[in-house]
Amino acid sequence: MALSGIQIYKMLPRTNCRDCGFPTCLAFAMKLAAKQIELSACPHVSDESKAQLAESAAPPVRLVTLKSNGYEVKAGNEVVLSRHEKTFCHKPGLFIRVKDDETAADIKAKLAPAEAYHVDYVGLDLSLDGFAVESVTGDASAFATAVKAVGEVSQRPLILMSGDPAVIAAGLEAANNETPLIHAADVDNWEAMARLAKQYKAALVVNGRSLDELADLTEKIKGAGVEDMALNPLGDNLSQRLALSTQIRRLALKKNFRALGYPLFVAPANGEDAAYQSILAAQGIAKYGGFVVIDTFTPELAYPLLVLRQNIYTDPQKPIQVQPGLYEINDPTPDSPVLVTTNFSITYFSVANEVDGSGLPAWLLVAEAEGMSVLTAWAAGKFDAERIAKDVKRFNVADQVSHKRIVLPGHTAVLSGELEEELPDWEIKVGPREAVDLPAFMKQVLA
Ligand code: SF4
């Protein structure tokens, strides 16, 4: 039974030391009761209280981590139903599925482009997370061969899919994974699957057609010693799956119903076309999926799913930033102009794309402005002459160019006088207000 904030408060040190970031122990206790922070944020809780608070401190959705050769996929630990309430913590892992009736050569040929796929999205490197191998032959050695073939292409985490524990055992032997995910336990095989999960330290997907069935199975499997599970609610269509997924997450978060407090598993049935797979995957990403499987890899299918996932799992209170530094555009020479902007990613890409598209070479100094756009950063005191001058020196701009001329964004013309004082031997130019006008400015004013 979950403890109230007052009950938790009585077990805290009650020194109001603020080391947790809250002004009082009571404020911390209230947040802990609401599942909005973790007990580890208070470094002073006694071991005795930790043990007593373990139930309240446990996240309502268990964190499940798949590990393989330095790669990790984490799912769970979520504490809110909607992103605007706080933020979602762990992006769902995206997996591509192959089947063991394909030859090893076909499997490798299918997976190689998926393994190599990376896309640069506003400065972020997005890629897929792992692969799933499904037994459709029912043959343990064919399954092991398929698992080995995947391992020769990728070191990423694996999902092993079969309802037959003997087949799964062969796959686990063949897999070079520290923590794979087994799919799946059900009412008929859960004891054998739980034994395998325990023996190989694997996580276990639990299949169920209803909430009662899922909750009953997770309790039994937990009793058998397996903690890391994922839930696969078997709806017949998108609507049923969405309803079941939402009910599971609501019960976990709002009612603290531990038996359903696990990440969700989402995979299309065999034979679903690429359009259905993409809709199901998008639904899974948007609504509580922790591990999402698709059969088809093409860049045009993977890209929107990766971008959707990135947008949903980005903290709306933290702007996406690019790394401050001196960026080269169109192979600049020492004569090329030096432009300045901030490290808000949309600002950076607006400026960089306009200059890049013009074909004109330039050095772009991206100044540290805590990820804010030019005007916002200037108004907040995060983009001022002192900071710009500091970054001119930090990134050795003078060593790259044969001139000493720097172009400020037009919106911050007011900084030019102060920047002249900070950089006395530099000529300060004021550029246009809008990035779209930069090419004309560079041709007419800087040429
Ligand atoms: S760190 Fe612990 S003891 Fe200090 S104020 Fe926070 S809850 Fe209280």
How would you portray this structure in words?
With 447 residues, the chain is α/β, with parallel strands linked by helices. The chain folds into three domains: 5-57, Electron transport complex subunit B, putative Fe-S cluster (3-methyladenine DNA Glycosylase II, Chain A, domain 3), CATH 1.10.15.40; 64-312, TIM Barrel; 325-444, 3-Layer(aba) Sandwich (Rossmann fold), CATH 3.40.50.11600. Helices cover 40% and strands 19% of the residues. The chain has helices spanning 5-11, 25-33, 47-57, 104-116, 140-153, 165-174, 190-200, 211-223, 238-254, 274-286, 299-312, 345-358, 374-379, 385-394, 397-400, 416-422, 438-444, and strands at residues 64-68, 71-75, 93-99, 118-121, 124-127, 130-134, 158-161, 181-185, 203-208, 229-233, 264-266, 289-294, 325-329, 338-342, 362-367, 405-408, 427-430. The strands form four sheets. Strands 10-9-8-7-6-3-12-11 form an eight-stranded parallel sheet. Strands 13-15-14-16-17 form a five-stranded mixed sheet, with helices on both faces. It has a two-stranded antiparallel ribbon with strand order 1-2. The mean pLDDT is 93. Bound molecules: iron/sulfur cluster. Iron/sulfur cluster binds at residues 12-13, 15-20, 22, 25, 28, 42, 44.
